[in-house]
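Posting this for the archive.
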Amino acid sequence: MKMFILKSFGIAALMFISVLTGMQIANGGIHKMKGYDDPNFQNAVSINETNNQFMASFLGNDISSHDIEAKKKKLEEISAFNFFSSMGKKMSNGISSASEKLIQLITD
């Protein structure tokens, strides 16, 4: 059993290292294919913090905390109704109250 776990861990570590190496080789290949070092070549995701304000960039599109707050307000205004969410809440409340009553019945 110990050997199986050891072999499994070894194989998983080897796969992880192989994936990281492959990603590094692919990154080098992209730079070679481009032919020059482009300063506009951006990472897929970048996060910057300045004075307690977070600025994030996802695939070149800037996202700020103000954008997130505006979207949150917009969703609250829409007050979208999710049928499955409301049914789940009702079912969980019913099960909670039924189990509470059952426990009170057993303890009394």
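The longest helix spans residues 2-34. The longest strand covers residues 45-50.
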